[in-house]
Design brief:
Shape: rod-shaped
Distance between the termini: 92 Å
Radius of gyration: 33 Å
Largest sheet: none
Number of strands: 0
Number of helices: 3
Length: 91
Amino acid sequence: MYWNGHGMGGWGWFAMSFGSVLLILLFIAIVFLVLHGAGGSGRGAVGRPDPPAPSAEQLLAERFALGEIDDEEYERRLAALRRHRPGWAGR
């Protein structure tokens, strides 16, 4: 009886449907940005790789710099590390 009588034709229904879909997508985008983008989620930084672990030589140099070991022990341990490097089997 009043199916097509309120002044909205086929393009009106299309525009209303398209607008509804855009509104739902906008709402989903806002929720996503609030949960993941604004200030983090409290679980640490996302997307940033962890810094590489220091090598044995770097740790030894740090101990020497802090005065935990003397120069003789540093040189002895450094020579031992360099003699027994992984992947250096008889090169």
